[in-house]
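Open question from group meeting: does this chain pack into something compact, or does most of it stay loose? Before anyone orders reagents, we agreed to write out a predicted structure and look at it together. Recording both the input and the output here so the notebook holds the full record.
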Amino acid sequence: MAVSTDFEVAVPRLVDAEELARVHVQAWREAYAELLPQHFYDDAARESRQAMWSGLLLREDAGERFRVARREGRIVGLVAYGPAADHQGHPPERDEQLYALYVLSSCYGHGVGQALLDQALGERPAQLWVAKDNARARRFYEKNGFTADGTEHVDQDLDGLVEIRMVR
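C-alpha coordinates returned:
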Protein backbone atom coordinates (compact mmCIF):
# COMPACT_ATOMS: atom_id res chain seq x y z
CA MET A 1 0.00 0.00 0.00
CA ALA A 2 1.38 3.41 -0.93
CA VAL A 3 2.02 5.90 1.85
CA SER A 4 -0.18 8.97 1.50
CA THR A 5 0.40 12.47 2.78
CA ASP A 6 -3.21 13.64 2.77
CA PHE A 7 -3.08 14.43 6.47
CA GLU A 8 -1.49 17.03 8.71
CA VAL A 9 0.01 16.75 12.18
CA ALA A 10 -0.91 19.49 14.63
CA VAL A 11 -1.20 20.40 18.30
CA PRO A 12 -4.71 19.54 19.52
CA ARG A 13 -6.97 22.22 20.98
CA LEU A 14 -9.36 22.01 23.92
CA VAL A 15 -12.30 21.92 21.49
CA ASP A 16 -10.84 18.64 20.15
CA ALA A 17 -11.42 16.73 23.41
CA GLU A 18 -14.69 15.11 22.29
CA GLU A 19 -13.29 14.03 18.93
CA LEU A 20 -10.06 12.86 20.57
CA ALA A 21 -12.11 10.68 22.93
CA ARG A 22 -14.06 9.19 20.02
CA VAL A 23 -10.89 8.42 18.06
CA HIS A 24 -9.09 7.09 21.14
CA VAL A 25 -11.88 4.64 21.95
CA GLN A 26 -12.37 3.62 18.30
CA ALA A 27 -8.64 3.01 17.85
CA TRP A 28 -8.63 0.90 21.02
CA ARG A 29 -11.58 -1.12 19.67
CA GLU A 30 -9.75 -1.69 16.41
CA ALA A 31 -6.40 -2.55 18.03
CA TYR A 32 -7.53 -4.47 21.11
CA ALA A 33 -10.89 -6.06 20.20
CA GLU A 34 -9.44 -9.53 20.78
CA LEU A 35 -7.53 -8.51 23.92
CA LEU A 36 -9.97 -6.48 26.04
CA PRO A 37 -13.68 -6.80 26.92
CA GLN A 38 -16.40 -4.64 25.36
CA HIS A 39 -16.72 -2.24 28.31
CA PHE A 40 -13.44 -0.61 27.25
CA TYR A 41 -15.21 0.67 24.11
CA ASP A 42 -18.68 1.68 25.31
CA ASP A 43 -20.25 5.11 25.93
CA ALA A 44 -18.90 5.23 29.49
CA ALA A 45 -15.38 4.65 28.17
CA ARG A 46 -15.80 7.44 25.63
CA GLU A 47 -17.13 9.84 28.31
CA SER A 48 -14.21 8.95 30.57
CA ARG A 49 -11.73 9.59 27.74
CA GLN A 50 -13.40 12.91 26.95
CA ALA A 51 -12.95 14.04 30.57
CA MET A 52 -9.36 12.80 30.47
CA TRP A 53 -8.55 14.68 27.23
CA SER A 54 -10.27 17.84 28.44
CA GLY A 55 -8.02 17.83 31.49
CA LEU A 56 -4.87 17.00 29.54
CA LEU A 57 -5.43 19.72 26.96
CA LEU A 58 -5.75 22.32 29.71
CA ARG A 59 -2.20 21.59 30.85
CA GLU A 60 0.38 24.30 30.31
CA ASP A 61 2.65 21.82 28.51
CA ALA A 62 -0.06 20.33 26.26
CA GLY A 63 1.60 21.76 23.16
CA GLU A 64 4.79 19.92 24.07
CA ARG A 65 3.16 16.55 24.86
CA PHE A 66 0.37 15.86 22.37
CA ARG A 67 -0.17 15.82 18.62
CA VAL A 68 -3.04 14.76 16.39
CA ALA A 69 -3.18 13.76 12.76
CA ARG A 70 -6.03 15.28 10.77
CA ARG A 71 -7.36 14.13 7.43
CA GLU A 72 -9.92 16.42 5.79
CA GLY A 73 -10.21 18.27 9.10
CA ARG A 74 -11.04 15.16 11.14
CA ILE A 75 -8.75 13.57 13.71
CA VAL A 76 -7.52 10.15 12.57
CA GLY A 77 -4.67 9.60 15.03
CA LEU A 78 -3.09 10.87 18.23
CA VAL A 79 0.15 10.66 20.14
CA ALA A 80 1.06 11.47 23.75
CA TYR A 81 4.68 11.66 24.90
CA GLY A 82 6.85 13.32 27.50
CA PRO A 83 9.27 12.69 30.34
CA ALA A 84 9.43 9.02 31.30
CA ALA A 85 7.78 7.99 34.53
CA ASP A 86 7.59 5.02 36.85
CA HIS A 87 5.09 2.52 35.41
CA GLN A 88 3.36 0.58 38.16
CA GLY A 89 6.56 -0.15 40.05
CA HIS A 90 8.93 -0.23 37.07
CA PRO A 91 11.36 2.72 37.11
CA PRO A 92 12.06 4.32 33.73
CA GLU A 93 14.96 3.16 31.57
CA ARG A 94 15.00 6.24 29.33
CA ASP A 95 14.39 9.96 29.86
CA GLU A 96 11.51 10.16 27.36
CA GLN A 97 8.43 8.00 26.97
CA LEU A 98 5.80 7.41 24.33
CA TYR A 99 2.57 7.18 26.34
CA ALA A 100 0.08 6.59 23.54
CA LEU A 101 0.04 6.29 19.78
CA TYR A 102 -3.31 5.43 18.21
CA VAL A 103 -4.38 5.59 14.58
CA LEU A 104 -7.74 4.62 13.10
CA SER A 105 -7.47 1.38 11.13
CA SER A 106 -8.67 3.15 7.97
CA CYS A 107 -5.31 4.97 8.05
CA TYR A 108 -3.06 1.96 8.72
CA GLY A 109 -0.24 1.88 6.21
CA HIS A 110 -0.67 5.53 5.17
CA GLY A 111 2.20 6.98 7.21
CA VAL A 112 0.02 8.54 9.91
CA GLY A 113 1.53 6.55 12.78
CA GLN A 114 5.04 7.20 11.49
CA ALA A 115 4.42 10.95 11.18
CA LEU A 116 3.02 11.09 14.72
CA LEU A 117 5.97 9.13 16.14
CA ASP A 118 8.44 11.31 14.25
CA GLN A 119 6.80 14.50 15.58
CA ALA A 120 6.77 13.14 19.12
CA LEU A 121 10.24 11.66 19.46
CA GLY A 122 12.22 11.99 16.27
CA GLU A 123 15.09 9.51 16.60
CA ARG A 124 15.73 10.21 20.31
CA PRO A 125 16.13 7.40 22.84
CA ALA A 126 12.82 6.63 24.53
CA GLN A 127 10.70 3.90 26.06
CA LEU A 128 7.13 2.74 25.73
CA TRP A 129 4.76 0.07 27.01
CA VAL A 130 2.79 -2.03 24.52
CA ALA A 131 0.42 -4.97 24.79
CA LYS A 132 2.51 -8.12 24.50
CA ASP A 133 -0.03 -9.65 22.11
CA ASN A 134 -0.33 -6.57 19.86
CA ALA A 135 1.92 -7.92 17.12
CA ARG A 136 1.16 -5.10 14.67
CA ALA A 137 2.22 -2.39 17.14
CA ARG A 138 5.31 -4.31 18.19
CA ARG A 139 6.45 -4.65 14.54
CA PHE A 140 5.91 -0.92 14.01
CA TYR A 141 8.01 -0.03 17.06
CA GLU A 142 10.71 -2.55 16.11
CA LYS A 143 10.89 -0.94 12.65
CA ASN A 144 11.55 2.33 14.51
CA GLY A 145 14.44 0.94 16.56
CA PHE A 146 12.62 -0.13 19.72
CA THR A 147 13.38 -3.52 21.26
CA ALA A 148 11.73 -5.39 24.11
CA ASP A 149 13.98 -5.14 27.17
CA GLY A 150 12.54 -8.19 28.93
CA THR A 151 10.37 -6.22 31.36
CA GLU A 152 6.72 -7.16 31.41
CA HIS A 153 3.81 -6.21 33.55
CA VAL A 154 0.26 -7.51 34.08
CA ASP A 155 -2.02 -4.46 34.10
CA GLN A 156 -4.94 -5.15 36.40
CA ASP A 157 -6.60 -1.89 35.28
CA LEU A 158 -6.77 -3.47 31.81
CA ASP A 159 -8.29 -6.79 32.92
CA GLY A 160 -4.90 -8.48 33.26
CA LEU A 161 -3.51 -7.41 29.87
CA VAL A 162 0.20 -8.23 29.68
CA GLU A 163 2.35 -5.27 28.61
CA ILE A 164 6.01 -5.26 27.69
CA ARG A 165 8.47 -2.38 27.78
CA MET A 166 10.32 -1.50 24.60
CA VAL A 167 13.32 0.85 24.52
CA ARG A 168 15.64 2.49 22.01
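Observations to bring back to the group:
The domain at 8-167 is CATH 3.40.630.30 (Aminopeptidase).
The longest strand covers residues 74-83.
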